[in-house]
Write a structure and sequence with these properties.
The chain has a 6-stranded mixed sheet, sandwiched between helices. A 4-stranded antiparallel sheet has the order 2-1-4-5. The protein has 2 domains: 167 residues, P-loop containing nucleotide triphosphate hydrolases (Rossmann fold); 65 residues, no CATH class. It is α/β, with parallel strands linked by helices. It binds adenosine-5'-triphosphate. This is ABC transporter ATP-binding protein. One of its GO terms (molecular function) is ATP binding. Keywords: ATP-binding, Nodulation, Nucleotide-binding, Transport. Belongs to the ABC transporter superfamily.
Amino acid sequence: MVTAALEIDHVSHSFGRVTALDDVSLTVPRGGFTALLGVNGAGKTTLFSLITRLYDNSSGSIRVAGHDLRRQPRQALARLGVVFQSRAMDADLSVRQNLAYHASLHGIGRSNAAARIEAVLAQVGLAEKSGDRISALSGGQQRRAEIARALIHSPDILLLDEATVGLDVKSRAEVLALTRRLIADHGVSALWATHIMDEIQPDDDLVILHQGRVLRQGSAGQIAAGQGLTRAFLDLTGVAAA
Ligand SMILES: Nc1ncnc2c1ncn2[C@@H]1O[C@H](COP(=O)(O)OP(=O)(O)OP(=O)(O)O)[C@@H](O)[C@H]1O
């Protein structure tokens, strides 16, 4: 049996009396693009924080490439690459210096790191910018550098939390296209958290998260059911998405 890239099974999480996630189950298939669609406050960031172990998950289970996050945290986290909403790279260092630092954090030796840095820079189309400081890059290039950082240790799955926030229309499209290309050409999987319907295609696997609960998972085309995703989302949640 092929193991899924990510399996979330009956996971809940509360902040005091606020239930941020309520019995959430979802699967990201290997080599797939799964969109996690929800309006602000749906619970997307909380879910990512549990998957990355920023928060402890005490209910249900989370498995990354078959590794249980509680029982085999090191193996599970090693299979995960994360692009957070906020920047994770040093703006005053060059792209290459940042990548070298993150390679060393992952225990990649110097000679292997040089080859990995070349490879990920080529994958995200930033080979010519490797000596530039992060602060000198455009917003879209900075996002692509973040994706290169997330790929440095050859993860099985990328988690991207609102990866296009703050970008102009062209850069948004580029970052999304890059993510889809990484899946097609390099076999990674992606969980793409967003509140923007336009980023989702009919063939995509879609999870609709609302008020901490998964309302639907399936192909976006099927969920849209001929009436369009905007209408389907409104019918399911009672709320209009962007
Ligand atoms: N640290 C926290 N303390 C208390 N409540 C929190 C905390 N973080 C999130 N919440 C609450 O949990 C719920 C889910 O929030 P979360 O940030 O996960 O949603 P989201 O879908 O990522 O939204 P956004 O896109 O705005 O980040 C919301 O009701 C939020 O107010």
